[in-house]
Amino acid sequence: MSRKIRRRKILKGLGVAGVAGLAGCAQAGEDTPTEEDAGGDGGDGGDGGDGEDMSTATPTETPGDGTETTDGDGGGAESRTIRLGILMGVTGQLSDLGPPIRQAAELAADYVDEESDTFTVDYQFEDTATDPNTGISAAESLVSAGYPMIAGALSSTVTIQTANNVAVPNGVVECSPASTSPAITDLEDNGYLYRTTPTDALQSQVMTQIGRERLEASTTATLALNNDYGQGLADAYVSAWEEAGGTVQQEVSFEPGASSYTSQLSSALQDQPDLLMIVGYPDSGVRIFRDFYNDYSQDFCDIIVPDGLQSGSLPGNVGNSMRNVWGTAPTSTGPGRETFDSLYQEAYDSDPSESPFTGQSFDAVAVLALANAAAGENNGEAIRDQMNAVANEGGETVTPENLAEGLEMAASGTEVNYQGASSAVEFDDVGDIAAATYQYYRYQEGGFEVIENIDYSA
Fold it and tell me: Coiled coil located at which positions (predicted)?
């Protein structure tokens, strides 16, 4: 079909045009980083229904569910439009981390649209600017436009606010690929909020294990961004560290966008801890590390950081090799990892492993699409009721490689089990991922090197 041929050209073209366009709008600093967003251009919306040539077919759309009846050579076969909102921060604090995560989400949507002869994907992107208020407005735009499900947000604070104020009250399913705050676990979400990334209750355990066993530290201090992501992870880390028999000397918070963090660093380091844990995003992280190396040497103490500060450009922006900085981040080791890597490399001419949460982002869209297909309609409640059914154990295995076929199986009533790029994507009873694999990495001149992968489960 001509639409599929054209879609392939668009997908490959994104490797140049899409990256350049995103780079142009990402000069300020999201809903990650993993977290928070800002702008809301919405200019990339409706990619699935772009008016491409449908050959001799004459579609008649049923309002509300996006069902079309094709009267051409298809012999009356039914086709459907899957409607998807993408809500992510590509400006603001997550300007460094957000764009690749958005690309992975759009890759999944374009891939389904291209490969399926039955389903078309109509999606609209909104930028949260890694800001809760902007995120709420952006989410409202998606809900008003009739999107029953949303991939996002990135920042934990943005995800919590958009879920509480927009998605849950309106019966819209939200699935975040990057929000890791433990606070999300206990949210009163009526079953509408999911995430394909693990809670920081797990990451705090991994960071503590590395700090105590690998780095041989007995004392630590924390310097954390004052939001749900920063404080949630810092609190979980403090608890884990103390449970492991270590001593926490200082707990210091900071606000984003300050011109200097010298005072906060001085407070955190006053008792000369063996290990300093810093949690935030690259936007503020550059200033924090510049201030650290202006006043302290690499030998003063080791530093450990989480996914929010995983950025290959950080040493260059800081002007230091940062070899005393170690890190952890959820990584992608799912059954569909190889297929995802190949698709992403072809579309964007870059390695997705260099950016956190890309595999999780592809998986968020894939699970939402499968739940939509199984539900048979663009209805948030119906989609919500299928999320666990299409992801958890049991049924025919679906991976990124046979995702289009999986949609047709789900739509026909066949039980399916999605196993993704990031993990097997098993949701627990509150929509969390119960197990994850974390990269253990170290910064060095020109970027970071992964030392090993560590499997961890609750």
Answer: none
**Three-class SS of residue 106?**
helix
Q: Does residue 222 have a cis bond before it (omega within 30 degrees)?
A: no
pLDDT, mean of residues 17-44: 35
The sign of the dihedral angle between the CA atoms of 337, 174, 357, 304 is: negative
| Average pLDDT score, the chain | 86
**DSSP-assigned beta bridge partners for residue 124:** 85
Evaluate whether 118 touches 411 at the Cβ level (below 8 Å): yes
Helices (H), 116-199: 132-144, 156-162
pLDDT at 70 > cutoff 70: no
Domains of the chain, start order:
2-198+336-418 (3.40.50.2300), 201-332+436-457 (3.40.50.2300)
Distance CA 128, CA 107 (A): 19
Question: Peptide bond preceding 258: is omega within 30 degrees of 0, i.e. cis?
Answer: no
Strands 435-444 and 325-330: antiparallel
Q: What is the DSSP letter of 38?
A: B
Phi and psi torsions of 145, nearest 5°: -80, -5
pLDDT > 50? residue 43: no
Q: Taking residues 63-85, report their average pLDDT.
A: 57
Contact 268, 303 (CB under 8 A): no
Minimal CA–CA distance to 95: which of 24, 40, 143, 163?
Answer: 24
pTM for the full model?
0.82
Q: Which residues contact 411 (CB under 8 A, 6 or more apart)?
A: 80, 118, 119, 373, 374, 376
**Beta bridge mates, 79:** 68
- Provide the b/e sequence for 390-426 (b: ≥16 CB within 10 Å): bbeeebeebbbebbbebbbbbbeeeebbbbbbbbbbb
pLDDT at 23 over 90: no
pLDDT value at 4 more than 70: no
Mean pLDDT of 45-65: 35
Helix/strand/coil percentages in the chain, nearest 5: 40, 20, 35
Residue 101: which of 170, 180, 161 has the closest Cα?
Answer: 180
- Phi-psi domain of 32 (left: phi exceeds 0; alpha: psi -120 through 50; beta: other): left
Beta strands in 153-238, from DSSP E residues, in sequence order: 173-176, 193-195, 219-225
Q: How far is CA 120 from CA 116, 148, 214, 367, in A?
A: 7, 15, 49, 16
- Rounded to 5 degrees, φ, ψ at 431 are 85, 10
DSSP state of 413: T
Q: Which of 202, 196, 175, 201 is nearest to 425 (CA)?
A: 196
* Cα 437 from chain centre: 15
